[in-house]
Design goal:
Largest sheet of chain B: 6 strands, mixed
Largest interface: A-B, 20 and 24 residues
Helix content of chain B: under 10%
Structural class of chain B: mainly beta
Order of helices and strands of chain A: EEEEEEEEEEE
Number of strands of chain B: 10
Number of domains of chain B: 1
CATH architecture of chain A: Sandwich
Oligomer: heterodimer
Shape of chain B: globular
Order of helices and strands of chain B: EEEEEEEEEE
Distance between the termini of chain B: 33 Å
Strand content of chain A: over 45%
CATH superfamily of chain B: Immunoglobulins
Helix content of chain A: under 10%
CATH superfamily of chain A: Immunoglobulins
Radius of gyration of chain A: 13 Å
Chain lengths: 110, 116
């Protein structure tokens, strides 16, 4: 059930855009995105439920393609504060456990 | 308290000893998770408690690991006969009740376990 994230790592300059992908081999109920900064606990970004919706706040948004069992996280005009490791988590059913991928390390250069 | 509290924050133990890690979740959050994170690695699922349902123990790596949740609140993760490969940060997370708007996980700061 563990999702596959790509790329494993990204280095960007401030202001550039990034896309992080997350895919599953099984049908999904929900996709969860978290960001973890070094030495800190993961912090919630957003959750997407099956239905193919897209969500976003500030310059971070995500989409969920139910048919392809994929989700993508979009970071637009990246800021230094966006640096960290991004994890996608998948749940197969409502009230089912959330399993996380191995993460994507994002480093933003000034 | 307002957040998820874990103790101890750091634990150094000798190989073969037993350890207990405690998680005090947010009041009213019916779901509780334990994850393990080795240095520079991802979030490895260990166990999931959801309300009064039987816990999902499918992520526990061996029978040396066990967890319980008393009264739907505080949870204890026990590792018996610790091995060096058990060294990691153990994270507890509480989740809002089913049907909530976000399903957000609130993570504690973790318990860093070092087995010598």
């Amino acid at each position: 059930q563990q999702p596959v994230q790509s790329p494993q790592a990204v280095i960007l300059r401030e202001g550039e855009d990034a896309v992080i992908n997350c895919s599953s081999s099984k049908a999904l109920y929900s996709v969860h995105w978290y960001r973890q900064k070094h030495g800190e606990a993961p912090v919630f970004l957003m959750i997407l439920l099956k239905g193919g919706e897209q969500k976003g706040h500030d310059k971070i948004s995500a989409s969920f393609n139910e048919k392809k069992q994929q989700s993508s996280l979009y970071l637009t005009a990246s800021q230094l504060s966006y640096s960290g490791t991004y994890f996608c988590g998948l749940s197969l059913n409502r009230d089912d456990k959330i399993i996380f991928g191995k993460g994507t390390r994002l480093h933003i250069l000034p | 308290g307002a957040g998820v509290s874990q103790s101890p924050s750091n634990k150094v133990t000798e190989k073969g000893k037993d350890v207990e890690l405690r998680c005090d979740p947010i009041s009213g959050h019916t779901a509780l998770y334990w994850y393990r994170q080795s240095l520079g690695q991802g979030l490895e699922f260990l166990i999931y408690f959801q309300g009064n349902s039987a816990p999902d123990k499918s992520g526990l790596p061996s029978d040396r690991f066990s967890a319980e949740r008393t009264g739907g609140s505080v949870s204890t993760l026990t590792i018996q006969r610790t091995q060096q490969e058990d060294s990691a940060v153990y994270l507890c997370a509480a989740q809002e009740p089913s049907g909530s708007l976000t399903g957000e996980l609130f993570f504690g700061e973790g318990s860093r376990l070092t087995v010598l």
